[in-house]
Amino acid sequence: MRRRQFLEGSFGTVAGVCGMAREAGRSSLNARAQSAEPEACPESRYKALNALLDRGAMERGWAKSVDSDYRHAPQAAIEAFKDLKFGIRIHWGLYCMIGSHESWGLAGANQQFWKVYNVLYQFFSPVGFDPDAWMSLFRRSGIRFFTFTTKHHDGFSMWPTKTTQESPALTAQAFDNGCEYTKTVTNHYSTMDSPYKKDIVGALVKAAREHGVKVGFYYSHVDWHDPAFAWDPFHYQYDPKFTKESEPARWQTFINHEREQVRELMTQYGPIDVLDFDIGWPESAAEDIAGVAKMVRGLQPAIIMRSRGIGAYGDYHTPEREIPSGTSKELWKVIYPCGTSFSYIPSDEYRSAEWVLESLITVCAKGGNFEVGFGPMPSGAWAQEAVERLEYVGDWLQVNGEAIYDTRPHTVFQEGDDIWFTSSKDAGTVYAISLKWPGRTFTVRSVRPRPGSPVQMLGVQTPLKWERGGDSVAVDIPSAVAEHKPCKQAYVFKFRAERG
Q1: Spatial separation of the C-alpha atoms in residues 443 and 476, rounded to whole Å
Q2: What is the average pLDDT score of the chain?
Q3: CB 424 within 8 A of CB 407
Q4: How far out from the chain centre does Cα 131 lie?
Q5: DSSP readout, 434-452?
Q6: In the chain, what is the straight-line distance between the N-terminal and C-terminal CA atoms, in Å?
Q7: Residue 335 to residues 288, 343, 433: CA-CA distances in angstroms?
Q8: 94 backbone φψ class: left, alpha, beta (φ>0; ψ -120 to 50)
Q9: Under 8 Å CB-to-CB from 172, ≥6 apart: which residues?
Q10: So where are the chain's domains?
Q11: Which pLDDT score is estimated for 58?
Q12: Cα angle at 59 between 54 and 64, to 5 degrees?
């Protein structure tokens, strides 16, 4: 929100360099904003518009049950999803060109911001985008899957969709006289309408398959660029009188638009592993949005779908910017940006590499997957801060990956503040992960090793001596191991566990 406020205040200066500073007047985004009073700040506008958006009604429209013939993702797909553990959530689109928190910068933005944003597609040209380099980075980092924003709330498609809609486009006069010099065109509002003119989604899928990385798509139910989405208070052409009953043909337009776009994504790129829908539609469109989910299931029977907007038709949920306090019988994945935003922001404040690793360990101990959020720069390259943090985790996983991948929760997932547990699927092997170096002796109560079985520290070839005393197990750590630690953080002890 602060970044949008800064951008709105500075757009006149920035755009003035290329002749786009003249405003076409401060007409409001909606009827409620028309007033002789000074224009409200972005924060106030956001709060006012958000109050108009009945999120409760939207969630009430999420399906509570499914059709009797509907089938969720098969168990094999669910188990395969659980095995992945570490992924990256990639938000990339027009918003990275101006350092916005994804396209949320549009929510409550003033007219000038919208005018500039709506023509950014004419300048989008990520010449530094190298999908093979992305996948090489992911493999070095131990990342087994990604979820990529095929379309965020701004409506810009990162693949060559065949759907069309009306869009503003700058005319030649705009560069001398201001951004109000636009014309209305009918286009796809996609990468093919930008100078880049390439299928980014397709390039990523191709590279992922070649590198053995699983593919996930993010797709927002929201489209603030589509003129038929004007029922949403955040839309720049918001019309509070527009409903399903007032203009049924126009209402059907946004439904058909999403349905066709999702059909493209589900039919043009082969098997897709994960689909994360976002936000939702009004309660009056509940049946239609459920229909989109059912279409996806018919086209991709093994896909894992997030429940946002589609409710019971989904397979899993994603706690965002938080890690659940315990385990769950449901399927889940934590999504958490490493910076303040999921997308790239210049001079962002990033959490440490140690935080990324500890979050991965904590989530896996509780039975979930962890997807850390980073966004590439406008060029398509990754910021050094992202590379360093991902490679740090990758170095640890090179030594300790067997304690993370393909594991399930132990009967006890945590002991004290610094010890976390994971288990093999058959519960025959238990991994105790000590976030801190334990000193000369590692003592743990929540594991019962088989009598006479070896105890190993991952990354150390020689088994360690251990003994059971009362309700605990003590593992001796030789000085030679302490002098040549196998990793920088989070030391893993591998036990052959007793059954029952």
Answers
A1: 9
A2: 92
A3: yes
A4: 18
A5: ESS--TTEEEESS--BPTT
A6: 53
A7: 27, 13, 22
A8: alpha
A9: none
A10: 2-403, 414-496
A11: 76
A12: 155
Q: What is the pLDDT of residues 253-303, one digit of tens each?
A: 999 999 999 999 999 999 999 999 999 999 999 999 999 999 999 999 999
Q: If one looks up domain 2-403 in CATH, what number appears?
A: 3.20.20.80
CB 181 within 8 Å of CB 141: no
| Non-local CB neighbours of 113 within 8 Å, separated by 6+ positions | 4, 7, 8, 11, 105, 106
CA distance 145 to 168: 36
Third-level CATH fold of 414-496:
Immunoglobulin-like (2.60.40)
Domains 2-403 and 414-496 share a fold: no
3-state secondary structure of 361: helix
Tokens at 303, concatenated? 């896909």
Contact 455, 449 (CB under 8 A): yes
pLDDT digits (tens, 9 = 90+) for 40-90: 677 788 888 888 887 777 787 899 999 999 999 999 999 999 999 999 999
Note if the pTM is more than 0.90. yes
Task: Tell me whether residue 91 is exposed, middle or buried, using C-beta atoms within 10 angstroms of its C-beta: 0 to 12, 13 to 18, 19 or more.
Answer: buried
Q: What are phi and psi of 341, to 5 degrees?
A: -130, 155
Q: Which residue has the tokens 């893993």?
A: 492
Question: Cβ neighbours of residue 245 under 8 Å, at least 6 residues apart?
Answer: none
